[in-house]
Amino acid sequence: MKTIIRAFIALALLLALAALNGCSKDKPAPTAPTGPTLLPPMMKSALITNGKLYVTCQRLKNWGYGDTSLVVVVNPVNDSIETAISLTHFNPADMKDAMGKLFVICSGGFGVQDGGLERIDVASGASDGVLLTEATAGGDLCEIQIVNSRKAYLRVLVGGTANEIFPFYLSGSTLGSRLTYVNNACSDQSMAFDDITLYVGDRGGTTPGLIKVDTATNAQIDTTLTLGLIPAALTYYFTGPGYVVATTTDVQYSEGNVTTCQKNTTGIRSNLLSIGSDVVPTSYNGALYLIDRTNATLTRINGETINTTTAHDIPYAVSLGAASNPQAIAFYSSTKAYVARLNALNLLIINPATGDSIGAVSFAKYALEE
Question: Burial of 285 by CB count in 10 Å (0-12 exposed, 13-18 middle, 19+ buried)?
């Protein structure tokens, strides 16, 4: 009998303690308060120069202005963020480096002409100012391709429909006359450069395809080269004799393919590899990399095997994070690269030799509250 009484007393004590702790059967444990939903900082461009990694963050909200757009500087030795450079305009769409400077294209709000081309000194991180405004350009600035210390080419979206190409003279920050033989350039990565010739993917006109430009005279070289499908994005592949690589798509954006054109020739090899309809090519150290933005994958193709239709050397095709919308990859070495993703809170680090994820850099402090 005493044993039963002791058991009842022990049970009563346990229930009393549970009630005091707020964990009784009748009163469930309190849940942690829910914090605000964070919007990704929208990483767009990434490049490595002067031993540092530079990543643009658009920081948009509902595809409009959210907060100051940034260029975030990362030390690739220890993957630490060193600083963030504020941009004069918002919505950075492209960034290139040359002559110790960063050239950042900000599109602002599309159709509003509130963006500009800003130059940043790499050594100091200070802005040299805005070289060109959209009000002067007459449209939305979208892309820059630098060909030498005096000259670049800009893609300008005019009237919200036509992507036009203009020479831009860096010494005087003056815009030249439109290249009238380009009807409607690709809407992303429309230009590639082989150190002599500029290549433009043209989606408009009666013969969409690849256009070669003499950068000394701005004249078209040869005729427009048809690519099988409509060009989507270009890169120059410094492998073998050198190739322009174009990803292509059909008009319904339901399928894509890869086409190449060897340097100093008009020979086109089309329909080499079936891919998605929103794929951006880039190259590094004898390999071609295809970033599929819709499916968030990265595919590596070794050497010149892209020029065949059956014997591609593809060591991997890996996920970069479901729905992460990868935009660009910057290579630090043959075993380390960084992937900027529009819909992620961190900068992904991968081994480009194997495709394995090897780390990440948090960009959460640049996120916005929804």
Answer: exposed
Q: Give per-residue pLDDT as tens, 330-343.
A: 999 999 999 999 99
Q: What mean pLDDT is reported for the chain? A: 91
Q: What confidence tens digit (pLDDT) does each residue in 39-80 have?
A: 999 999 999 999 999 999 999 999 899 999 999 999 999 999
**CA angle (76, 242, 257) in 5-degree steps:** 85
Which of these, 343, 340, 337, 341, lies nearest to 357 by C-alpha position?
Answer: 337
Q: What is the percentage of the chain residues whose pLDDT exceeds 90?
A: 83
Question: How high is the pLDDT of residue 32?
Answer: 53
Secondary structure of residue 365 in the 3-state scheme: helix
Residue 242 above 70 pLDDT? yes
CATH of the domain at 200: 2.130.10.10
Side-chain half-sphere exposure of 233, counting CA atoms within 13 A: 20
The model carries a pTM of: 0.89
Residue 221 inside a domain? The answer is yes
Residue 312 sits at φ, ψ, to 5 deg, of -70, 135
List beta partners, residue 283. Answer: 288
16 domain-assigned: no
Buried b (16+ CB within 10 A) or exposed e, 28-44: eeeeeeeeeeebbbbbb
- Alpha-carbon distance of 97 to 321, in angstroms, equals 28
pLDDT at 34: 58
Between CA 347 and CA 356 the distance in angstroms is 14
What does the alpha-carbon distance between residue 131 and residue 170 come to, in Å, rounded to a whole number? Answer: 8
266 in a structural domain:
yes
Structural domains in the chain (count)? 1
What is the residue whose two structure tokens read 């004069």?
Answer: 88
Instruction: Identify whether 282 is part of a domain.
Output: yes
Per the document, the length of the chain is: 370
Domain that holds residue 257: 194-319
CA dihedral 62, 359, 77, 81 (to 10 degrees): 30
Provide the 10 A C-beta neighbour count for residue 207. Answer: 12
Strand partners, 255: none
Residue 23 has pLDDT above 70, yes or no: no
